[in-house]
Each structure stands twice: as C-alpha cells, then as structure tokens.
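Hi F.,

I've been meaning to write this up properly since the lab meeting, where we talked about keeping a consistent format for the predictions we share between groups. The idea is simple: the sequence comes first, exactly as it goes in, then the structure tokens exactly as they come out, then a line or two of notes. No screenshots and no reformatting. I'm using this chain as the first example so we have something concrete to point to.
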Amino acid sequence: MHTYLDFEKSIAELEGKIQELKALATQGAQQGSSVNMQDEIGRLEQKVGQQLKETYAALTPWQKVQVARHPARPHFVNYVGKLIEDFTPLAGDRAFADDPAILGGLGRFRGRSVMVIGHEKGWDTQSRIAHNFGLGKPDGYRKAVRLMSLAERFNIPVITLVDTAGAYPGREGEERAQAEAIARSTDRCLSLGVPLIAVIIGEGGSGGAVGLAAGSRVLMLEHSIYSVISPEGAASILWRDSAKSQDAATAMKITAQSLYEYGVIDRIIPEPVGGAHREPDNIIRVTGDAIDEELRDLEKLDAATIRKQRREKFLAIGRSG
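Output, unedited:
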C-alpha cells in the first residue's frame, strides 16, 4: 500500500476513489454487468497526474524533507541491484567490526569496474534495526576508508550513495572516536587519485553524509536534502522549539536547488512526477545515466589533475566571483 505524505491528502483521496472504481469494475465484469467505468477512472487518473505535477512543482523545503525521508524511496541495495553487475560485498574495517549501516563492495557498472559505498537505512522494521537506520558508526567510516584506498590501489573509480540522517550519536560511537573516523573518511575522499562520484539519493545529514560525499562530482536527486544538521535539530538549538522545523528547513537552504545555486553540488538529477518512490526503476536508471556521464569526463584525467580539481572545487564553495 502506498504511503502518503501530509501534503498529499487530496491525491490520496483521488487514488482511493480510483481503486474503488477499479474494484467495482472488476466485480461488475465478473457478474456480467455492462456498466463501463473506464471513462471515469481515466478522468480521475488524469486529475491525479495534474495534481501531482502541480504539487511537486511547488514543494516547500519542509515538504522536500518529507519526500527525502519517504520510506519507499529507493535505497542503496536497490541501486546496487539494478546498476551494478557481479556485486561483491566487502565487510569490516580490519580494526573492530563490520558496520551494517554503511555497505560497500566491488562490481561492474556499464562495463567498468567500480567500488560502490553507501548508507543503507533498511526498508521495513526488521531491516531498519539490522542496518541501524543508516546511522554509521566509526567502524563504517573506517571500512569506507579501507575500500576507497583499495579502489585507488587498483585505479578503480568510486561511487558513493548517501542516505543518512547523520552518524550514530550514541555512546559506542564516541567511545570509538566517531569524529576522527568521519574526518579521516572525508580526508580520504578528498585525497583520492581516482574519480569519486557522490550521489545524495535521499537524506544527506551532517558529517555522517559529508564523510562519503566529498567527491569529484556531487550529485543530488531533485527532492533530496543535504545539510549540516537536521531541521529539527537546528530548530531545537536556535529557537529551543522543534515545532519551528519548517522555518529551519527554509532558512538552512537544504534543497538541491539552493545547493546548486551556491555551488555546493554539481548536478541535480530530475525525479519522476510524484517523487522517486513512485517510479523507483525510472529514477535508478536516470541516476545511472548521470553517474556514467560524469565518469566519462573524469576517466580522461590523471591522478594529479583529479586531486587538483577536487581541491579547487571545495575551496571555491562560498567564495564570490
């Protein structure tokens, strides 16, 4: 069953009516009824399409936060399953443990060997608990450093798929040096001599996202978000009132459109009407096309040029002229 967001109430009602009419049409056909409901169904479907188009063309930053967090939005495992052939997962940080919130491994992407690393939030209660809701621990970021170094050793490009509310904030993380692990992962992203394409596929939250997103190219899905802190966290700090989350989302400029304007990201990947969760196969294919195009440009460059361009890209953020 489709999960509707707060601002999709009218769409939910229309689609509910369509399902009712389809059920009645099926029942009538089985009973030999000659009543034709196809015209009414077609009219309602057209109305739904128009409403979706109008609604998603004018989303507020807070509504985009809701879309980015939609539970049916495609996850790391979905992208890997559709885009990566012969995927071989690689586990462990060779120091403490394997972190199920950050996954990675080798595979083939459209004819080339790649290293793929990303956050996995899980898709139902059991898997969300198993993957710790995509909240990476220090072991996950140390694993990412190990896999990026392995990719560089064999001259293999890296693709990262970012989707996390942030790094794990609990005691275990602090005991095992969470901040240091994220800093080393960010540094490894920046120092790589091979192309690194980072894609924000859902929620890009705090240092937990930056630790995998400091790439040669940073791409964002149209309705994803990317921020130093969650809107709820910012509202709690600034106004001591989490109810002001909507104001915080607007003020923080966390949408793909704002971040592209400020030069924080390099490309916006358009989503299907109604969001990535409505047409997952479509958005995965389009994302694959964008990654392929960026890799084709970067593969022509040597290691020194890749490092230089990446450094200049990040130093230029926030500078005028």
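Notes:
The chain has two domains: 6-58, 66-315.
Residues 22 and 108 are 42 Å apart (CA to CA).

If this format works for you, I'll send the rest the same way.

G.
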